[in-house]
Amino acid sequence: MLKRGLIMDNTVLSQDKLHEECGVFGIYSLNEEEVAHDIYYGLISLQHRGQESAGIAVSDTSGEMGNLRLKKDMGLVNEVFNEEDLNHLSGNIGVGHVRYSTTGGSKAVNAQPIAMNYIKGSLALVHNGNIVNAPELKEEQMNRGLAHYTTSDTEVIAYEVIGERVKTGTIEGAVKNAAAKLRGGYALVVMSPRKLIGIRDPFGIKPLILGKKSDSYIFASESAAITAVGGEIIRDVEPGEMIAITKEGIASDRSMCQEKRAHCIFEYIYFARNDSVMDGIEIHDARVNAGRALARKAKVDADIVVGVPDSGIAAAEGYALESGIPFAIAFHKNSYIGRSFIKPTDKERQTAVHMKLSVLNNVVQDKNIVIIDDSIVRGTTMRQLIEMLRNAGAKSVHVRISSPPFLYPCYYGTDVPTSKQLIASQHSTEDVRVNIGADSLEYLSVEDFTTMVGDLPLCTACFTNDYPV
Fold it and tell me: Among all residues, which ones are annotated catalytic?
């Protein structure tokens, strides 16, 4: 049992949340300024999208062909790179990556960027997403002698680009031809010695933003990473669009664009930073609107509304605004926690002194509470949070979730586990309520997504079993 005032281990929160696979960043300084520090700070701003590994590759467009410099390793961005590393990564064009593994495993060999030399030059590639037909492409590559062994979707993509580059006259043509073979959700940024190319899957499942800083052009998974380095947003890369940055400027190819689109709803529910904008949607506003929709659908008599840090705060604000129930901060989050999940044994993880959340007892004592979070995956986190609130003196705890029940796995680069691991897939809402120890439990409905994002076409397969690819 969690005792009164006890705080929660970071492991619990980490294991019961959905994770995005990656964050990508690319920059080309046309006036030949160094870019490694901008990539570093861009990756810091994307750290929430992946905490397992980080990498940067740079090149100098004014130098000799093939002068590519690369560093990548397991760990957070500020653990992988120091000032000496950034000074060594000299060049005016580069790409960077943060990774959370959903395919390929959590291994240093799978860290990105993927950098390769080949007969016509060199390239470095970063990728966010998951390629559904990667096994078939990998088998074909091995049969052609193009690749003998690949460990990740990203390597499969890189070998496809190299194979096409040998046949085509430009790197742009090679990237487009390779992308045309891919099935799934992806955002790619490819660096050649003289060009930076960004391309997004035709459904728009994965985000990619184009920005500008002085004479530099930037690609990033989120707008927040562009503004963090002092840049300004130009626009979203269109689903299916390829944009090439060269000394001559920007060139757009929309030949892969299509009418059907399916943007990942979970970018708006949870993945993206609160201060980001994607496809014209303010992320914070979308989450507040989800909370408002929850209050209209499932209001309950209560004294305060609280959000689970950080994922439920904005929706809790919306619920409070719509219901008229006061919003309160019930949890203190320690932002300086070490990553306890990297400890080598389960026992060490469970007994680690690093803790994540504690309850503000005076806020919740003798209160009827509505607690908001973005999702329930396995149920372990919410169950322990409710127990913590009750141990701190809460009279009742009513749970409201700003997404529908998770019923199906995701194949596009989100680590939604198999349906057997999704508590809502195996149990009724009432059974889940009993399991987590809540006084009541209500979810957002799929129909309420229009309140969040208007008429933006969405991928909702993890809720509906309707897969776009």
Answer: 22
pLDDT in tens, 31-74: 999 999 999 999 999 999 999 999 999 999 986 555 899 999 99
Q: How far apart are CA 42 and CA 299, in angstroms?
A: 40
Residue 120 has which token pair?
Answer: 């016509």
Q: At 37, is the secondary structure helix, strand, or coil?
A: helix
Q: How far is CA 245 from CA 190, 217, 220, 374, 382, in A?
A: 10, 7, 14, 37, 46
Three-class DSSP category at 92 = coil
How far apart are alpha carbons 442 and 24 in whole angstroms? 35
List the Cα angle 338/341/343 in 5-degree steps: 85
Q: What is the pLDDT of residues 187-241, one digit of tens each?
A: 999 999 899 999 999 999 999 999 999 999 999 999 999 999 999 999 999 999 9
Model confidence pLDDT, tens digit, residues 385-418? 999 999 999 999 999 999 999 899 888 877 665 7
Distance of CA 331 to the CA centre of its chain: 24
CA atoms within 13 Å, Cβ hemisphere of 65: 9
Measure the CA–CA gap between 112 and 426, rounded to whole angstroms.
36
Contact 405, 13 (CB under 8 A): no
Residue 398 three-state SS: strand
Report the SS3 class of residue 54: strand
Please compute the mean of the pLDDT values over residues 173-182 and round it to a whole number: 96
441: left (phi > 0), else alpha (psi -120 to 50), else beta? beta
